[in-house]
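ok here's the first one, seq then struct tokens
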Amino acid sequence: MQKIKIDNERKQLAQLRYFYLYALAGKILTFSSAKKIIEENAAWEELDKAVGSFIGKEFVLPPRRLLNDCKEVLNYICAVKDNDRALRVTATNRAGTAIHSFDYVGFDEKILSGEFAERETFLGGKLKTVEFNQDMSKPWVMRLIFEKGFVSLVVKNDK
């Protein structure tokens, strides 16, 4: 992130912001489960500092598939119940045993998810706010709330 000062056409800086917060959440979960209080507190401080500098900045989330039926699934893009202008993701560790973040992306217009259902999709937007978990007996770290959302589809290259 220190090498890329301004974002490029591939939105690498916007992607790195997300991965940085995701990685810090992973550190917190790891230290919490290992009962390493000092390291966990340091990771929380680093996360808090990073979040403070990222509010209002553009993010691009990793590509995921959108599902129309999202009962009991993780790491997929899903509709937000009773809100046709938002999508959500529950981003977990590889095993699906701990939640790094609940990601909510709000859009200015209604989302017609049928256009990109079952396709690899990038979500993005400007980070509006972050809520931290205050009870680590529940295995999740944060809620990331984005505004000015956008969707980009992964295009397959047939070459």
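and now the second one, same deal
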Amino acid sequence: MHVEAEGRVQIALERDLATPERRAWFLAEAGGEAVGAVEVGLNPAPPVYELGGQPAGLVGETFYARVPDASPALLDAAEAFVREHGAAVTVATCPAQDTRRLALLQERGYCPLTLWMIKAVNTRADFSPAIRPAAETDLSSLVRLNRQAQEEKRRANARFWTPHPDAPARFEGWMRHSLTLADRELLVSPANGGARGFAVAQPAGLPPAHDAAGLGLLDDLAADDWATFADLLNAAQIAFARQGRTTVQAVCPADWPERREALEAAGFRTANLWLILEE
């Protein structure tokens, strides 16, 4: 928890209430007493993916009920908000250990979409001497590797991960800009004038009640083979250690078993899930 958790949550709540067309909080009451709450928002598709110009609805981290009957009612309200605002898909978050919430979501037709996997940063990870910082000359390789990863994501769930027609150009532009950002490191495993893999070690975000200072994120991570993938995982941990991070979080589509197995072999475990409503 962040030491200023309550104040940060209040700021976020006031911000969200000021944009009712994009975000909403619902409160469950019983006998005049608050017994539960849920937050829900509308988020644009990432620039490299295509949702037909519609947003994605996300039932957020704040989904809490002190009495069991409140949870279905809160989820009813959140899903109604998403439908009324024309979202292309509905996604809900769920801590991996929250078996009650997970069972409720699955009973209502939600299926695992994304695994948020974590491990403690290994400050003694082996560093492959082949790994080096990325340069502009690597951008075409990064685009190629990301295109391959996008295809795996599309195979895992085409409703959520359909590449945008302009995805290559948009991704190249973002990577070019990322090379100028001081809060992240772009790493590549070079091969024959290009790269056989890349990783972006960057800061992670958490809900406002939590302290994200020690958390690093691996989202943009792709390689031609799993040995290179493992080398990049190790190199990224060394980068996170330099940044003062103590925990690394990696993103994995739920239906990409080879990637999940590679992360598990490196010591990652699932801490949180996103689930998509199959309609």
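notes on #2: Residues 219 and 234 are 15 Å apart (CA to CA). The mean pLDDT is 95.
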